[in-house]
Amino acid sequence: MRAGKHGWTTAAATVVCAVTVLAAPGTAFAAPGPSPAPGTPGASSTAPAATPGKDLEAVRKKLDELYRAAASATDEYNAAEEKADKQSAEIAELAKKIVKGQEKLDGLKDRAGAAARSQYRTGGLPDEAKLMLSDDPENFLDGTGRVVQGQRATKGLLGEMTRTQADLKAYAADASAQFEKLEANRKAKATARKKVEKQIKAAEKLESELEQEEKERLARLEREAQEKAQTAWLGSGILQDLDSGATEQGRKAVEYATAQVGKPYQWGAEGPQAYDCSGLTSQAWVAAGTAIPRTSQQQWKQLTRVDIEDMRPGDLIIYFDDASHVGMYVGDGSVVHAPRPGRSITIAGAGSMPILGVVRPDTGASAQE
């Protein structure tokens, strides 16, 4: 039994409603405080030992590991969200096509029904039979033309009805397939969210166990590690022959990104109040007039790669082997980026993290000096 117009419209409305609903982020190192020296008053066998520098270095490395894992999971979340948004839009378009297709089919059925009723009122005889019973030669000739036209019209009507029904069936199948993909990406988003939140919670717990003095020392260790890496990178001579001229779009992207300095990192955010690393770079290039992939991993996969020696302001530097972090080169060996939870968007040394490579959003544009 075929669904009527009301049934198809209700189904399409259900599709749209469903889209709205579906489219609806360890191991801790304790940091004991200083203990009295052996043999001094108050010393006991249960007092914790002093935290040496190498222990804080282990904490720094563990925090880096946790936040990197969170960044990788954030990329998974962002990718799933991007796909879900795309599928939701496709389902909404299919719903519109289903409604329009059903309206068209109903109109064709009305035309077919009108033809059937007309035949009934004329006694049920087809035009061919009435023509053969005519005694008037002129009526016979005129009728012949009408019969041929009628046959063609009927054949065309039936063909159009068949095509429309086939289109509706295809739209329904496409919508069903998109629903399955949407549900899969909804689950992927939920899984990635749990991963992000788990890693960030572990990192925050680890940091919360440090005394204020240890937190300050840890911050110094982080800065020293970044400075050491940047110094080594600059010392390699990588910037010696660097082409620093930016394109007009590159300048606009840099202006946008640097204007966000001081705003907080927030995983999954694309502004304007907060950003994650790829949210910052993608929105900066949108502001410059070029849409680029949302995630750092997709930016690495889809954008044109250039040699580090050839990079220019506006190019994106991809970090770590899994492409889980990205920053925008701003010139003079520096990058603007959104580092991690608990940090703000900042300017840092481009070589302060392990570089995977460089990609360029505006390959066709010429650099300006």
Write the layout of secondary structure elements.
Elements: H1 5-22, H2 53-121, H3 127-132, H4 137-208, H5 212-235, H6 248-259, H7 277-287, H8 296-302, E1 304-306, E2 316-319, E3 325-331, E4 334-337, E5 346-349, E6 355-360
Antiparallel strand pairs: 1-6, 2-3, 2-6, 3-4, 4-5
What would you say this structure looks like, in words?
This protein is α+β, with helices and mostly antiparallel strands. Helices cover 59% and strands 8% of the residues. The chain contains eight helices and six strands; from the N terminus they run H-H-H-H-H-H-H-H-E-E-E-E-E-E. It has helices spanning 5-22, 53-121, 127-132, 137-208, 212-235, 248-259, 277-287, 296-302, and strands at residues 304-306, 316-319, 325-331, 334-337, 346-349, 355-360. The protein has a six-stranded antiparallel beta sheet. Helix 2 packs antiparallel against helix 4 (137-208), helix 2 packs across helix 5 (212-235) and helix 6 (248-259) crosses helix 7. The N and C termini lie far apart (71 Å). 31% of the residues are buried.
Radius of gyration: 34 Å
Q: Could you give a short account of the major beta sheet?
A: 6 strands, antiparallel
DSSP helical segment count: 8
The H/E string reads: HHHHHHHHEEEEEE
- Calculate the mean pLDDT score and round it: 76
Derived structural class: alpha+beta
**What fraction, in percent, of the residue positions are helical?**
55-70%
End-to-end distance, in Å? 71 Å
